[in-house]
Amino acid sequence: MPETPYIRLENVGKVYDTRNGTVEACADVSLDIREHEFVAFVGPSGCGKTTIMKMVAGLQSHTSGTITVGGRKVDRPQTDVGIVFQEAILLDWRDVLANVMLQVEIRKLDRAKFEPVARHLIEATGLKGFEHKKPYELSGGMRQRVSICRALVHDPPMLLMDEPFGALDALTREQISMDIQRVWMEKRKTALHITHSIPEAVLLADRVVVMSPRPGRIVEIIDIDLPRPRRLDQLPPRFNDYAQHIRGIFKAKGVLAMD
Question: Which pLDDT belongs to residue 259?
């Protein structure tokens, strides 16, 4: 493993100024994320998970501490990154392929080089045959798959996902989780995944970062020692052990009600 992590957070905190005073979203967050690692953050609403992701992306400033990506301090928006938000945010007048290729056009990249990449991603996420469908012709899960393809088409080294499955039904979440795992195993991006779902975090991640209620602090970092690819119909008993351990942390913090 490389000596220098790809993403490093050192004593990072964020305080928001609001009409009703200051709100401390997170505090004293220190974490090293290795290149090609898949790390999931799980925690209660308002604990600063999304704030941490946005600070890593440079979309929000941090109030205290330092953040580095690729050895460089984050003090402005990162351009070499793919981001998947909670909503797909597609352009209604563009078809699937054109929405995916938007990244290529904005970045003024070679269309002839990247269109085959876009088509490969579309196929890998189960959208083959829908290349020329408009967003209103797609289900919510399919639209989110398009946003995943768009985030990856320009081959960024870092993939940030902010609860991308939050608005989807359970079956669709499971299928897209499998799509994400398949694409990540092929591309091996450094991935940071924000979620409320404990099983989803354990299923996808190499490590799960468990956050406390606001102000969010890291309670525990759990190594997920499960072989890949992980299949929902063949999960070992340790999968439930990890999930139960995380639930136990939240019960101790009062996030989950005691039995």
Answer: 47
